[in-house]
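Lecture 7 notes: from sequence to structure.

We start with a single chain of 296 residues. Read the sequence below before looking at the structure.
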Amino acid sequence: MAVENVSETLKRELPALLRDDPDFRRYVLDLTRREYADRQQTEDRFNRILEELRQNREAQERKWAKQDRKWEEQDRKWWEAQEENKRKWEEQDRKWWEAQEENKRKWEEQDRKWEQTQEENKREREQVQEENRREWEEQKRKWEESRTEPRLLHEETMAQLRKYGRRISALGARWGMQSEASFRNALAGILEENFDIQVLNVNEYDEQGEVFGRPAQIELDIIIKNGLLLICELKSSMSKADVHLFERKARFYERRHGRKADRLIVISPMIDKWAGKLAKELGIDIYSDSSEVEEI
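Now the structure, written as tokens:
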């Protein structure tokens, strides 16, 4: 009971003692110093807490600013992507219209070339007929002059007639009255008869599309004699485009077999003048008939 009275007395009197008695106040402070932090420590701790709060706030602001920059960058990229897509669509539309115009131009050009081809074919037929007429008249004149040598005249006449026949066959092959293959076989047969050789027809597949720009079967006539390689083209007619195609097929065969051809030969009774000029530039020998080929 006495202890409780003392405690009540201290609670009642302690504030006044601490306020009015400096020595007592210092004594109490020294006695209780371990139980609480002093003012300096309290201020230091408070300042440290404030500093941590400030650093946390600045870090959060930096984080928000970084996020804002990311959002702005994403918005910029999105708009750039929209502009790029718009540009691509406009470019695709432009290319589509250009392709339509180009296709229209090609069709018109093809129609024009077809008409030109018809005219050229007509002129070629008329030219061949006129040449045949002149040659026939010349042959008739020679026959009249050579009545004293009927056997020689007969042989020469028959040779000319066979030559005319091949020209007529060439026209037939060109206009669908006789197959190109039959005409080619006839020319090949004359070569084999005159030179004791064999004309080999080879077919090879061009997987890379080197000749036609796409994979296709490539057909060529070749002659191999005494180690020589001759690549031939036997056709009823030859245009400039045909000469280009033959040269590409020959180079394809050379690359495929790793061997250079000794001669490139074209035999055709109807060779366009531009085709003849191109063949000369490419080093291709041209003949109007199998019987005119030089010694192989």
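The CA atoms of residues 224 and 230 lie 6 Å apart. Keep this in mind for problem set 3.
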